[in-house]
Structures are given as structure tokens and as C-alpha cells.
Amino acid sequence: VPMIVLLPTQQLDAMRAWDGLPGLLVKLPGVGSSLAKVINWLVLGQKRLFAWPNIWAKREIVPELVGKLEPLEVAQLALDYLEHPEKLSEMRSHLKSVRGKPGAAQTLAQLVKQELQKDVM
Predict the structure, then answer these.
(1) Contact predicate 1/60, CB 8 Å
(2) Cα dihedral across residues 76, 82, 83, 85: positive or negative
(3) Prediction pTM value
(4) Are 75 and 5 in contact (CB under 8 A)?
(5) How many domains does the chain contain in total?
(6) Domain encompassing residue 73
(7) CA-to-CA distance for 3 and 64, rounded, in angstroms?
(8) How far is CA 20 from the centre of its chain?
């Protein structure tokens, strides 16, 4: 399914919900906001891929908008895809090339069923 991945960093308060040490550190009074900004800066500086299809392909297939996002920028990108269906078709084709074979859920269900039947017999 074609998509646009949005990772807005202007919502630093979302980091307060993190588990583990980073979540605890960003909750510290006086230190938390600064630490959240440093974490954001470090993550953005890596220029890495965040969306799973892009990670699997080791290149950008689906657009990733990361940083301080503006609604107009997001809307313009979405409109561009809607006005150029060939871009959506190309993205769909690339996504199909990086996914696994179809039927994984059915195969998993069959394996679980077989294991459960072994336990009953």
C-alpha cells in the first residue's frame, strides 16, 4: 500500500511516553526538554531510513518526512501523488518487490494449528 511516513519532531512531549532510561531522563525537570532536543538532533543527524519498507530495501521507496513538519508541505506531497497516479503505481510496484511471498498469515496459522493438534494427540 503506497504511503507517506511522517515523523514530526516538534512534538517533543511524545518522548515522555518512552519506556526505559530515555523516557525517564526526558521527564527530569529542567533537563528533560534539553535532552529531548539533543536526542532529536542526534537522530536527525544520522540521515537514516525509518520506514520498514525503506529499511528492507536499503533505499527510500516511500517518502519519509522527518523533522519540523508543516501541514502545507505534507498536503502538497499528498496532492502530488494523487495528481500523478503513475507515482503511486511505481511506489506500489517497488513495495511489492521488497515484501515477502504472499500468504504468510495463512502459513503461520497452519503451523500453529499443527502444533496445537500435536499437543492434543
Answers:
(1) no
(2) positive
(3) 0.62
(4) no
(5) 1
(6) 5-120
(7) 9
(8) 20
